[in-house]
Amino acid sequence: MRDPRFRSAMPYDSVMSGFDEDIATLSDDALILLFSKGDEDAAAILVGRHLTRVLRFASRFLGNESEAEDVAQDAMMRLWKAAANWQPGRAKLSTWLYTVTRNLCIDRLRQTRASIEGEELLSDAPSVQEKMEAETRRAALHLALSELPEQQRQAVILRHIEGLSNSEISQIMGVSIEAVESSTARGKRNLKALLDKQKLYIGFEE
Amino acid sequence: MITDDDLLKELQEEKITGPKPTDALVSRVLRDAQSVQAMRQTAKPPATARARLETRLDEGPTLWQELRRLPLALGFAASAAVGLVFGLTNPLVLMEATDMSGAEAFAYADALVQILEGNLS
After folding, report:
1. Residue A73 exposed, middle or buried by CB count within 10 Å (0-12, 13-18, 19+)
2. Per residue in A104-144, pLDDT tens?
3. C-alpha A132 chain-centroid distance
4. Confidence label for B97 from pLDDT (cuts 50, 70 and 90)
5. Which of A47, A142, A186 best tests the B interface by mutation, with the highest count of B CBs <10 A?
6. Closest-CA residue in chain A for B69?
């Protein structure tokens, strides 16, 4: 095996440095195979390549960084468990991870909604308008995204933030490319309407 | 009124400003990886060298990627196909490519020869 300092958990900034050039340039499929053979360097490189995008996608989807961390950890755990049966060339790892993350987020949102549904009726939560006043421009965008219907939110995030193709998004969401295009277009239209509606969305000229 | 361009610009900026994994999260994820590997090793059923090799042959294209990491200066890879067969039947190459023990590598190479002979006969 290689450098023993990679046998233990590494801080994030070390993940992508210090590897032999040959292993660092291997494909995801090859790294998964190496991992399934017990190579921890491979695990660290996969983490360096994919954890950030998994975390960011979950964070945008859930609007909560703490929950997004749990989802990201869970998604990567599923990868480790799937490694032994991974079939090279069958699926692009990033697409597979987006799909797993999406499903975990949906599960979590359903649980959360179910648990707070009753409480919301009684709570004295600030209005959307009040929340907007207290938030930054970025938070306003997050809030508007969170108000989109689930399908539209996924499509807008995957297309315009993650930069995926309609074809990849259709695989992740399990819908046709036409449905992706429609959801993206409607999502953008609704997002603009939500932001327009919030007069406190700072930074845009009227 | 927000324009399409404004909206797309905001969404693009969001791509750059998303959260970054904390060191604690990376450590947790890598610990998970280690624990899955440890569980797999303890749960692994005994397998014959031949069965294990057949499994590995099913993974041919990826195994080839491993073999590509070898110092090709050895000159054994006159072609991909010849190189693959030669590499897999050479215990020394197997040991270097896959971190097998000497005994394991010789058993694998021997099993492959038998399979190849069986397939060719």
Report:
1. buried
2. 998 888 877 666 555 544 445 554 544 444 445 676 787 78
3. 24
4. low
5. A47
6. A22
CA distance A10 to chain B (A): 6
Q: What is the pTM of this model?
A: 0.60
Q: Is A53 exposed, middle or buried (0-12, 13-18, 19+ CB in 10 A)?
A: middle
Tokens encoding A31:
């790294």
User: Whose structure tokens read 């499509």?
Assistant: A155
Distance from CA of B54 to the nearest CA of A (A): 15
Task: Name every chain A residue with its beta carbon within 8 A of the beta carbon of B30.
Answer: 9-10, 40, 43-44, 47
Report which residue type is found at B118: G
d(C-alpha B3, C-alpha B69), whole Å = 51
End-to-end CA distance of chain B: 77
Contact B11 A156 (CB under 8 A): yes
Q: Residue A166: left (phi > 0), alpha (psi -120 to 50), or beta?
A: alpha
For CA atoms B10, B12, B15, B17, give the dihedral sign.
Answer: negative
